[in-house]
Amino acid sequence: MAKTKGKSGPLARRPDNSAFKQQRLPAWSPMLTANTVLPFFYLMALICLLLGVWLLLTVQSTQEMKLDYTEAGACSKCFEKRKNVSNAAQACSCTVVFSTEKAFKGDVFFYYGLRNFHQNLRRYMKSKDDGQMLGRRMNLKNPTSYCEPYARDPNGLPIAPCGAVANSIFNDSFILKYHGAGVAARRVPLLRTGITWYTDKNIKFRNPSTENQTLAEAFEGTTKPPYWRSPVYELDVRDPLNNGFINEDLIVWMREAAFPNFKKLYGVLDRAEEPFTSGLPAGSYSIDISYNFPVQYFRGRKEVVLTTLTWFGGQNHFLPIAYLITSGLIFLLAVVLTVVWWKFGKDGKNMEA
Amino acid sequence: MGSVVSCFRRLCVEEKKKEEERLLRANDRQFNLSYHYVNNAIRTSKYNIFTFLPLNLFEQFRRLANAYFLFLFFLQLIPQVSSLSWYTTAVPLVLVLSITAVKDATDDINRHKSDNQVNNRKVEVLIDGELRKEKWMNVQVGDIIRLENNQFVTADLLLLSSSEPLNLVYVETAELDGETNLKVKQALTVTGEMGDNIDELAAFDGEVRCEPPNNRLDKFKGTLTLKEQTYALDNDKVLLRGCTLRNTEWCFGLVIFGGPDTKLMQNSGKTTFKRTSIDHLMNVLVLCIFGFLAFMCSVMAIGNAIWEAREGSVFLAFLPYEAGVNATLSSFLSFWSYIIVLNTVVPISLYVSVEIIRLGNSFFIDWDRKMYYPKNDTPAQARTTTLNEELGQIKYIFSDKTGTLTQNIMTFNKCSINGQAYGDLYDFSGQRVEITEKTQKVDFSRNPLADPKFVFHDHSLQETMKEGNPEAEAFFRLLALCHTVMSEEKKEGELYYQAQSPDEGALVTAARNFGFVFRSRTPETITVMEMGRQVVYELVAVLDFNNVRKRMSVIVRSPQGKITLFCKGADTIIYERLHPSCDKLKKVTTGHLNEYAGDGLRTLVLAYKNLDEGYLEEWRQRHHEASTAMEGREERLDQLYEEIEKDMVLLGASAVEDKLQDGVPQTIEQLAKADIKIWVLTGDKQETAENIGYSCNMLREEMKDIFIVAANTAEGVKEELQNARRKMCPEGAEEPVVMRSRAGLFWLKKTETVQDEKVDGEYGLVINGHSLAFGLEKDLELELLRTACMCQTVICCRVTPLQKAQVVELVKKYKQAITLAIGDGANDVSMIKAAHIGVGISGQEGMQAVLSSDFSFAQFRYLQRLLLVHGRWSYLRMCKFLCYFFYKNFTFTFVHFWYAFFCGFSAQTVYDEWFITLYNLVYTSLPVLGLSIFDQDVNDRWSFQYPQLYSPGQQNMYFSKRAFVRCMMHSCYSSLILFFIPWAAMHDTVRDDGKDIADYQSFALLAQTCLLIVVNMQLCLDTHYWTAINQFFVWGSLAAYFAITFTMYSNGMFLIFTSAFPFIGTARNSLNQPNVWLTIFLTTLLCILPVVAFRFIFIQLRPTINDKVRHKVGKEALPAPAPRRPARRISTRRSGYAFSHSQGYGDLVTSRKFLLKRPLKRQVLFTQTDSPLAQNKPQHYRTIREEVEESQSL
């Protein structure tokens, strides 16, 4: 390994006297000393405490209402109905009521939640075709094999959108009604668009290029997923621009949840009209549910969630409490460390080699 | 060793099957071709263009790790199983394979180049009666070729004739064995007579019958049949490929072995690989990890079965099984899917990284200026790059003495002539004055032939010579005549001596400077310049040195016709053979001898005897008879010598200093402080060895006792050993405590470990070769080991090379400790190869030790730097690396494990597939390399200051199975934090605009970011030495992570490679969320702070030596290096005779006369040396070399 260099002379093979080769690179050798460790621990305890308190206050300022409607009240009949597969095509709707004691201030978000629905199974997650959803003609007509068995219908027609994810789309729909004091029930306006990531709506999902065609023509030669009632280009009958692959309910559903219990955004309160300009007023509400999605197969539950948000997101108490507990633990540790250091290391006797 | 021997034996057997004997005829290609001997083309390259890919891949896939990943890759191609895209395995695998392939390819290209260059060299070949230039590769066995001065020898040749008188050629064997001095080869007279007569050479049809190709450089056996006469051939008549012709105008040779059959080629490439204990541990761990992986996957498979039964079966409406799959099969498939997902516990890049780290640390050894020896321009060299960390774990050092502890430079220091001592300086009051650099030297400029390098301080000897003192003249005449040194006088007046042993050289040089210049010799004469006057002595006989006789004599006739026998030898031997008249002088001389021995000098006693013509004639007659006798030749000669070497007249004694190398005592003291035990294994005599032991501080006056084991029977040895042991450790059990355990792969290797026993006080043990031979026998070896290991210092003297290796093996076998052997000569090779680590001193005794060593440098004192600095750092770095590497991979993998409980055991990964692909290769590779190449706990000067820092390595404290388990627990904790904190924080939350953030992709990004930040923080905690490079690597890697992530999650990547980069927008949409960063901060705190607290508490409660020293470093400035203590004088008297323990040049000096009998004599010697007990015979390994060397003296 001795390198032969162009040098000659009596010291030709003398190694270079560089800091790197002689392992003398200037370096910083930090050490765990009481002067650094103890203040650091106390500081961290303080930071965590402040963060915890701040976050807790923030979270406390939000409001949240969860309502499990799987078998609630009138919905239990639909629940029973859905047990039987043969009734799948029959419509069933029910209404649940609830009331809020305090008004929801600010933007109010309406979620539907599922429990025990595994969107995170490996085969389930893969069972979609990103190329198809991007509106590529090739993929539209030839869905990837990952979509099996929902790639083609029994006649061999390609399914659009293919795959288990799209096929299993959550198809309950909700109408939220406000029963204000003395007034007739009035529908709470929900914005059903603007509920997806910008990147999903604009980049990840695209319709096939229509070029003077209608959307239905663009999807010609494909068929709807077997569990669907209407084809992909008729998902939103009211808003023609919210159809096809860029239907926002579809996009929201396609963003698979990481865990079996999840909630997905259904709509945002439209604060254009009174009395909703400052949020949802206190009072009683009802939700008309078109109860389609069967959950009893997999022992799942369905719920709706109404919540307001802060910069920190929804009403999630975990982080504030975790910070507070961590702060306590760190403080405890810091005290232990201080005691240990005081008893053993203060005079430096333990360091005598 | 055993395996090597058996392997060698097997090789030999195979070779024998192939070719039992080689038969060839000169100038008869037809005849030779019928035997299908290979021609002279060589091929050291392994591949060609077409075979490179398949062969290299085959080689690489023979490594377990690579094969495993290939298997994984194929597993991933099965769609039902594949839980990860193919590229997650393929990319790292291809990268690792291609790095190795590129390295192999460049190596091979270089080999091709050198092969081509060598094969296309031109040489003159005698074809069809004329000389033609031919390429080397076209030379065939049986060809006669002509070589010229400074040419490389083309193939293994039988020397036929040469331009020099007596058909001699001089060769340099540097390429063969690394020795740069010239060696002499001599052709048979019968072939030599042909000279350069082309016709005669073309007509030469000798038939050579010889041994098949083998790798023994020192032996050649064969016969040449010419005109129905058979001549014996030996190594002296063979020129080996790789040598260079020197000082010889031309020579002719007959090709015996060509190309791959040559001894050079047979010798190359058959190195046995040493592996470190960490390597073994790593293999075991990897195996454990495989087991653990299988276990985890089984858990996952069972989990999947349960899940499928309870949940999956009812989820079928949304996700039906694939065709042909049912619940049972699904759990079986999930087992394999998890094998893929969790494969990261078996680190593919581990082996590659380990190699890189070792290479880096080897470079640091090569680059170290403090291990560079300017005097002969020798840097330290890590010849093996795979053993570095073991340098930090050495427990036993086995050292040679001559040339290792000592310089093997002899200087003529003192002498006693006729009862008058010279060499010491006294001041006016009669006190001895210490000789220093400044002491005035004797001026020899009056003598034009004097050696300018010779230094002597006592002017009185010069005065004595000027006065013409006859005894003094006789003294130096003897030194100038009685030796076997060869002289070389390239220019008039510039004499060079080639001495077989350095002490002879020193004596002849002394005589030269004091006016008796040995000038030249022929087999019959010796020319000496006596005080400026040329005198030619007739050399009548040389009574050579050997270990029994311990003396050598010459019988010379002066020009005046006076016949004198000059003799020099060991005091005890000569004293027995002196004339009674010398008794008085003897007494005085004995006093001087004791003084010299006390100073650790090597002494010789000189005597002479005048002979009369008649007796000599009669003696010569008998000598001739004896030396031609077929039976009992040795004995008869010995008797004759005995007869003539008696009643001699004492002249005086000489004292030669065997100089210790610089800093040897200090080094030994440092190493002893580092709790390294040093055993000296030397071929020297007991007294010499003991003296050196004292002078280099191994044996100390303050030691409680020094045991000397010198019994000649097994019982005696046992008793002496037991007595010593009982004295050292009276309460110790009679039977050694042997711990039996199993280790190694599959726990197949049984180990027996003898426990160390506590001894209070320091003891020394000196054991001689005879006793050692008994001690090494099966029934005594444990006793020997026990006793020896209780002693601080062990010195074994009169040890054969085989015994050296046996001692090393013994300690290796029963101590399970890492051993290091250091030596400089060919006799140390066996020991160097046997020990875990062999260190060669590139010094005086040629290069053989270096060539078989793992590390080499020029001075013994560099050993402390190699061990205490480089070794310690290497060990530390390797351990840190392994701990951290396992930590980061386990942490990474365990998160998948926890996630399985949420995703129905469906083998869904937590992270993005690209992250999995790049995690080991890109995101974490450089920081950990930075840590494991640059880290140092304290710098080199502190390492020297506290040699105790070395002991954690010896006790294997930093990385062991326990440390590994600790690592796993730590990663388990970290992975729990890393999974459950993000889970809890995310599962029910949304972005600040109400949109999704609990989706899989965002969670994956969060989890992987947390992981990466935590493992990098952990690395920061582990790093003790923050250079700019480390900073750059750590922050650079983090930056690279974010850069790569944003790139891969960008619109462009998605639109181009839609299916490969589905994470579009995830980074943008979730990394701008405060709660994501708050989660990252919390996980980091929870992972890191407990580690900090834990370490801090440990430092406070139970600080290790490292902590203590580091604490000191922080507090105090480095104390100035301790002043060098002056070399200590030994007050105790010890007799100190020593002489090179091997046969002299004698028979060669007079080889003309004894030429024909030499082979016979040699053979006798060889058969006897097979027994390790043959102490008094020349040692096997030495003889090999000397035989070659001997020849140069012609």
Describe, in plain words, how this protein is organized in 3D.
The complex is a heterodimer of chains A (353) and B (1194). With 353 residues, chain A is α+β, with helices and mostly antiparallel strands. Chain A has helices at residues 34-60, 75-83, 122-126, 130-133, 137-141, 164-167, 198-204, 215-218, 248-254, 318-345, and strands at 27-28, 64-68, 93-100, 104-105, 108-115, 173-179, 186-187, 190-191, 262-269, 279-280, 283-290, 301-308. In chain A, helix 1 (34-60) runs antiparallel to helix 10. Chain A starts with 26 loop residues before the first strand and ends in an 8-residue tail after the last helix. With 1194 residues, chain B is α+β, with helices and mostly antiparallel strands. Chain B has five domains: 139-268, Distorted Sandwich (Calcium-transporting ATPase, cytoplasmic transduction domain A), CATH 2.70.150.10; 280-346; 373-404 and 661-859, HAD superfamily/HAD-like (Rossmann fold), CATH 3.40.50.1000; 406-659, Calcium-transporting ATPase, cytoplasmic domain N (3-Layer(aba) Sandwich); 870-1106, no CATH class. Chain B is 46% helix and 18% strand. In chain B, strands 14-37-36-35-15-29-34-33-30 form a nine-stranded mixed beta sheet, with helices on both faces. A nine-stranded antiparallel beta sheet of chain B has the order 17-16-28-27-26-25-24-23-22, sandwiched between helices. Chain B has a six-stranded antiparallel beta sheet with strand order 3-2-4-13-5-11. In chain B, strand 24 and strand 25 form a beta hairpin. In chain B, helix 10 runs antiparallel to helix 11 (327-341), helix 12 (348-367) packs antiparallel against helix 28 (862-900) and helix 34 (1000-1022) runs parallel beside helix 38 (1074-1101). In chain B, 50% of the residues are buried. Chains A and B meet through strand 1, helix 1, helix 3, helix 7 and strand 9 of A and helix 12, strand 14, helix 33, helix 34 and strand 38 of B. Strand 1 (27-28) of chain A pairs antiparallel with strand 38 (1026-1027) of chain B.
